[in-house]
Design a protein that fits this description.
There is one protein chain. The protein is an all-alpha fold and 523 residues long. 78% of the residues lie in helices and 0% in strands. Helix 22 packs across helix 23. The protein starts with a helix and ends with a helix.
């Protein structure tokens, strides 16, 4: 038993060391190379080279925002640790959280109204599908090839379609017309629930005072406001990411029937989130690895069986209902559905992002087996074309492109607005004040990358083996997942609550480090 425990501690230290070096290198690449290239060629990568002075000022503004945010957050962490804020103001934790979340809700709804836009890309496809299903009172449009069999090809978006259709059905029955307002309000509530669960989870781990730092991060994290009008799977799934983690943490700190119940809840929440956004599958191996490291094989097996049981049962039930309802007939699915190899193939193009060429490539082959075979051959060709060093370079570029944009690519989805307002001057690429928004957002993102790396370094050096390791495992799993899968700067959005929790740990540790150094100097 002691040997097994010693081995698990070494493995945890090894993981934290790997996390530190990976993210400190990513931080350096983003800070030195990534933002410089963006400053030169523009955020879309398609602009003409900019004058040296504007490049220098844009790059410098991002680094200054990073330094300023780091200093402010570390100072706040120091005061929260020492209790100075409490001794002066003595705020009620519950009242503070409720007030902050209510304030966020008001700002989010304001953003949602002012930034209302016409859906584009996948959201547009789902929007038209949902309206057609409601008006025809039938799913025939899915079977009959509407929108080039979009839903048959991308069956991962079927749960999202069902959610949007439900909202449109309700509004159509009540008003006789379609309104996106209820869906947008639901989207905002999803983000707010995620914020609330993140702060409550932080309180469970770090205590009330330090959880106030997590709340501050949430309040100042711009994407929690700018994504308010963009009702897609990124924000629909975010409460399920942190909800599954919350249930899991509560389970491992409980015993008996309560532990079993919480593990079952964890599996169910994880399954729902996975069906909305496939990247949530990362949580399953993250939970298993953490249990192996903390409790050994036997206890890990028992707890894993519990949450996997509810996950598999719910997943099978969903598949059974979809099949029984014949929403997508088997013969239609076999002909048009895209295999998983399609997204692996996309992951090997220049930035690993969606392209019309890759979509057309898979679309042209008839039958899922033919598509899969064609994808595998193209994957093999791309590997051979890149070679070993080319693949390493590709992975580095992909990592930087995925994790450098602190705006999470939101400007791309707000361009088709219904009515222009002052906020568009801040958020859109061509906006007069966009450089300010971009510098702040990327400065915050740079802070997150740095402080998560620092959190892992301190955990490694101090041989820490606590629940923050779980958050780092999940974040690292997400990082690896998007190295091989199709990616986009928007895709990590539903994992940002875990970013903020690891950042809380890292900021507290950095504040402790400065306090220790000051004490040493005074002696």
């Amino acid at each position: 038993m002691k040997i097994e425990r010693k081995r698990s501690k070494k493995l945890t230290d090894l993981f934290n060391a790997g996390f530190f070096w990976t993210f400190i290198v990513l931080f350096a690449l983003v800070a030195v190379i990534g933002y410089f290239l963006v400053s030169v060629y523009g955020e879309t990568g398609e602009g003409i080279p900019a004058p040296f002075l504007s490049v220098f000022l844009q790059h410098l503004s991002i680094l200054l925002c990073f330094a300023a945010l780091t200093a402010v957050f570390v100072l706040c962490a120091h005061h929260l640790r020492s209790g100075q804020l409490n001794s002066r103001f003595k705020p009620s934790f519950t009242a503070t959280v409720i007030t902050a979340v209510a304030l966020m809700l008001a700002v989010q709804l304001t953003f949602a109204y002012l930034l209302r836009m016409n859906p584009i890309t996948d959201v547009s496809r789902i929007d038209t599908y949902a309206q057609k299903i409601v008006t025809e009172n039938s799913f025939d449009c899915i079977r009959d090839g509407y929108n080039d069999y979009y839903i048959v090809r991308y069956q991962n978006n079927l749960p999202y379609l069902l959610i949007v259709t439900l909202f449109y059905k309700i509004t159509y029955l009540i008003t006789g017309s379609f309104s996106r307002a209820p869906i947008i309000v639901f989207n905002v509530l999803c983000i707010n629930i995620a914020v609330l669960l993140t702060v409550l989870l932080s309180r469970r781990i770090f205590g009330k005072r330090k959880a106030m730092l997590t709340l501050l991060f949430c309040l100042l994290f711009a994407p929690y406001y700018t994504f308010a009008p963009y009702f897609y799977t990124d924000s629909f799934s975010i409460p399920f990411t942190v909800g599954a983690v919350y249930a899991f943490v509560a389970a491992i700190r409980s015993s008996g029937k309560k532990k079993l119940l919480l593990l079952l809840v964890c599996g169910c929440v994880c399954c729902i989130g996975f069906k909305i956004k496939g990247s949530l599958i990362i949580l399953i191996p993250a939970f298993i690895i953490y249990l192996l490291l903390q409790y050994g094989f036997k206890r890990c097996l028992k707890m894993t069986a519990a949450f996997l049981l509810s996950f598999v049962i719910l997943l099978a039930s969903y598949a059974g209902v979809v099949k029984a309802s014949n929403i997508i007939p088997e013969d239609v699915s076999q002909r048009w559905q895209y295999p998983y190899t399609h997204w692996l193939m996309i992951g090997l193009n220049d930035y690993g992002a969606y392209t019309l060429e890759d979509n057309q490539f898979t679309y042209e082959y008839e039958g899922i087996e033919a598509k899969e075979q064609a994808n595998l051959e193209e994957i093999r060709r791309r590997f051979e074309q890149k070679g070993f060093f080319g693949t390493v370079l590709h992975v580095g570029i992909k990592a930087v492109w995925t994790h450098m944009d602190g705006t999470y690519y939101i400007a791309n989805y707000l361009e088709d607005y219904q009515e222009r307002c002052a906020l568009h001057s801040l958020l859109l690429y061509e906006g007069r004040f966009h450089p300010v928004f971009y510098a702040y957002s990327c400065g915050f993102q740079l802070f997150l990358l740095f402080i998560m790396a620092y959190s892992a370094k301190r955990a490694w050096k101090q041989h820490e083996h606590n629940v923050t390791t779980l958050f780092r495992i999940a974040v690292f799993g997400m990082f690896l997942f998007f190295l091989i899968w199709e990616t986009n700067a928007r895709y990590p959005y539903n994992f940002t609550p875990l970013y903020l929790l690891v950042a809380t740990d890292g900021t507290i540790k950095l504040a402790e480090h400065f306090t220790e150094r000051r004490r040493t100097k005074t002696k």
